[in-house]
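Bug #77: duplicate submission created two jobs. Keeping one. Sequence:
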Amino acid sequence: MARIIGGIGASHSPTIGFAKDTGKHNDPVWKPIFDGFDQIRGWVHEKKIDVIFMIYNDHITSFFLDHYSAFVLGIDDKYVAADEGGGPRDVAPAMGHLGLSQHIAMSFVADEFDMSFFQGKPVDHGFLSPLSMLGDASGPWPGQVVPLQVGVLQLPIPNAKRMWKLGKALRRAIESYPEDLNVAIMATGGLSHQVHGERAGFLNEEWDAEFLNLLETKPETLANMRLAEYAAKGGMEGAEVIMWLIMRGALSDKVNLVHKHTYAPSMTNIATLVFEDQGGEPDSAAVKAHREHMSYELEGAEALQGTYPFTHSRSHSNFRINRFLHALIRPEHRARFVSDFEALATEHGLNDEEKDIIRNRKWIEMIRRGVIFFVLEKMAAVLGVSNPEVYAAFRGETIEQFQATRKVSMKYSVAGGDKVKEIDRK
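Kept job's structure:
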């Protein structure tokens, strides 16, 4: 089964990626940054880490204020660099571990953490600044990742104690995963800094040292602090260090400090940290019980005839076609869908099978494949097909046969404007 080998703490300032991309390895002003990450990279290599669970926050790049979630777990197989305004960094994509991410997702929800999930989104410096430092001159770090994006920039946010509890849940999730994996938990962000307002430039190295010491020896003290205390001691943006409590909560009570380093050259006290976990093997009975707990809610649903639960696995496998059909909410996309389908589908990377089942309205084949009904509903609206006609097709019936099974024969659609009137007149 998967094992937590240790925890890593690292700042994620854009300073770090900038230093790497501009080749400042030997510049004495910048070299301390590289020295700290050299220690992390060496430990990851020595311990043969297979997967890093990466805790970070996006900086209003891929996660905007129109939909801002507290906890967003990545369930993708690849994470590319985001464009943060001046073009994306020239770094290799991080490769995701699908099986572990989907397992952790099920475990978190079973433990009553109401997660959001993402795929198809690029990652910004919060993720890539520290991760890109784990590669060497021969290329990127060869392992896989599971990212957790934490929404800490728009208030209200989860408190420090909630982060701590999520870390405990993370340990249960990882230790119940059956594949033989060495896992490290990497928390990013901080240390003290503030980047907005008249307090911009605030640093508190004394607090940073205290925080790192408490994280090692008395993490519960940190878990019981209020956000206002973190902001006062470490700056408003520096309060993001509460994310480090997810990492520490996932480790055993006792840890071995392998490495600790800070460097405060400008706006942020840049830190690197490594803890080795001192816990023993998980209790096999507890692992078995947790797996049963995870599967409890959906047990038996797979046996329901004509039912296709929309799991993360189905979602990921069919993300391209679902995204293509979801885009029908945009007028320009649906206009081309009707007038220039072949070219549009090719531009969006659809393969021959995907084109065929859309082109020929193979409604039930799309459902069986893993296309979610609610994008088919949009496709039907564009084509002037009512919902009951789609339901009938699912069942292999004519519309008359289907309507005969209803109390009232009616048709309807999610279409609007002239299109809904057109469907009503048919």
